[in-house]
Amino acid sequence: MNMVRTGVVSHPSEWRWSGYNEIQNPKKRYTILNNSRLMELLGFESLDALKAVHGQWIENSLKKGKLAREEKWSRSIAVGSREYIENIQTKLSVKAIHHKIHESKGSFELRDDQSPYTAAFGTENEKLRQVTTYKWASF
Length: 139
Hints:
This protein is an alpha+beta fold. It is built from eight helices and three strands. The protein is 47% helix and 12% strand. The chain has two domains: 2-64, no CATH class; 71-119, no CATH class.
């Protein structure tokens, strides 16, 4: 939907490399998505059922003008049940040291904790500006 949102195309099907096409017209080789696993995770019995529901989701979003980016999908490493998120966090081990679990509207997200950045750079990056700003010498 990003290319629709930016006005590059009017429908996700027009963008050759979109996830939409990966689901609606899956390639036989060199696929990006694992549609079998996606069907399993979403509880679909067949690719046709997944395609039908996915197509309807997209059409409904386009019809309602719901093109805005949903922050939880862009800012998070993982989104799902608490058990799923805790499992991902455990598997990431030390790599997830600054990633915290946040609850949002009935689901959970594993995302970067902004506090180390805020502590280091301040809310408006004052400290960073002081380090990267140099005054020109008068000649």
